[in-house]
Amino acid sequence: MRVLRFLCFFVLVSLALVQFRLALFEQTKYSNHENASSLNKYQTNPYLLSWLAKQKHLFEADLEQAQLLYKQALLINSVYVPAWLGLAELRFDKKQKQNANAILDYTSQLTDNVKRWRWDKTLVAYQFNREDILAVDLAYIILEMPGKPRNDALRTAFSIWPDPKEMQKELGSETLEYLFRYATRTNKIEQGLALWLEIEKKEIESEAQQKDTLAFINMLIGQGELKRATEIWRKHFNRTKLLFNGSFTGAPLQTAFGWRVGKNKGVSWYLTKENKKKDDLTALRIHFKRKSNINLYNIYQIVPLQGGKVYALKGKIKTKKLTTDQLPFVEALGYKCKAPYNKSEMMLANQPWSDLYFVFEVPDECDAMQIRLRRRESRHIDNKLAGDIWLTNFSISETEELFTILDEKP
User: Under a CB-based contact definition with an 8 Å cutoff, are residues 335 and 368 in contact?
Assistant: First the structure.
């Protein structure tokens, strides 16, 4: 409330100062005061005249005085766009809609392929419900004016044309990727899926296209649309294997159904190559710096799976000089669903390359599970975790067993 009062006070003071300078100018016409030349410049400035006209229009509802000020600004500069836009709004408020639209059409010609004042004209076109001008201007802003103008234009486009097919038709195919990214960023599921059908017709090859697709999959996952996310993921990123990048041949995706390795105090990670019988064995190496009693839970992968089945998790692990009584292990838990909890044994402090194996159940209501590296906090005095872990050759496979509600523990 105080902020609103301060703004009103500031506007009133500004108007008072302008009125004072105008009155002073009129007085100097008769007194030949030395300030006459500078005040004359003030009176012949189209920017200030247009600003004052807008104050008269919006805050004082003095339409006639505002119109005179706009006309004076245009006499000084006949192509000054803000004055034309202000005059169009004024005529629109005076119910002179035909004349207001004619002025807007003329202004649109003045700003053809011009960035400056493009958003101001778009706002006037929105007020006039001129979708013909809006389609041209919004497409131009989306394509040519990044940052806030582009974001504002996208938000306006989605509000004007809720149907994505109609929106794309109005704005043109060049804007498709920008519309798709905005739908992804703002969690617009159905509009995003409709735009995805057009995106998918292109080859998803470039790094930018793959990044957009992964972001869309991640949005669907976050919004609980796991089945739709899985369809896109399986088709474009992981056709054959259930668990993605189990040998860590590439960096963690940090999104979608790929590995996510979060930041932890006292923990670092990197990909390594381990020589094993002349073969290059890639692995994820995690180094604990003995700086904190780590509660480790943010190294994981969300894996889309079929409910009602039992799966086996396999992998290779190696450890070196791990400390404390609480050592890391691997666990499987339901993603946004309730599933029986299963985990591996804790790793040993010093362990050569060894097999990791355990089975886990997926209830019918689960569409995905979370495979996670876990370490619980220690309650011992000497509780800061140190040492290294290597992980590689992780995979998930179906077993011949089926899991039903009768198998769930009470």
Answer: yes
